[in-house]
Amino acid sequence: MPLFKGLLASVVLPGAVLLGGCAHYGAAQFVTDPPGAEVINLRDDTTLGTTPVKVYWKESDGQPKHVTVQFVKEGYRERITNIWVNMIYNSKDEALANAKPVRITLEKKQGDK
Question: Which of 48, 60, 61 is nearest to 99 (CA)?
C-alpha cells in the first residue's frame, strides 16, 4: 500500500499545483487634461490615484476585466468611462510596463447661475 500512496501523491500534487492556476495581470495608465484628477473605481468606490496614474489588476482566470472609473477634479465636470483591461501579463511589473493608455479631457464647469 505505501507504493500506491506514493504514486497517488506524485500524480495528485502536481495536478493540484496546475489547477491552482497562476495569476494574470493587466494595467491601465489614466491621463487627464488637465492632470490632477482623482480616479475612482465605481465598482467599490475606492480611489485608485491621481492622474497621471498607472493602476494594475490581478485575476486568476485571465479573462478581460471590465472597469468603470470616474474622474473628479475641482472646477471641472466629472467624467465616467468604461474600459476593458486585458489580463495577459504574468507579473505586476510586466503589466505596468505595458499599461493600456486611457486619455480623458475634462471640461471646465460653467459658472453657476
Answer: 48
Domains of the chain by start residue, with CATH: 22-105 (2.60.40)
Rounded Cα gap, residues 70 and 56, in angstroms: 16
pLDDT score of 109 more than 60? yes
DSSP, collapsed to helix, strand or coil, labels residue 29 as: strand
Cross-strand bridge partners of residue 58? 25
What pLDDT is stored for residue 10 in this prediction?
A: 46
Please say whether the beta carbons of 26 and 61 come within 8 A.
no
- CA 76, CA 54: separation in Å to the nearest integer? 22
Q: Each residue of 58-94: pLDDT tens digit?
A: 999 999 999 999 999 999 999 999 999 999 999 999 9
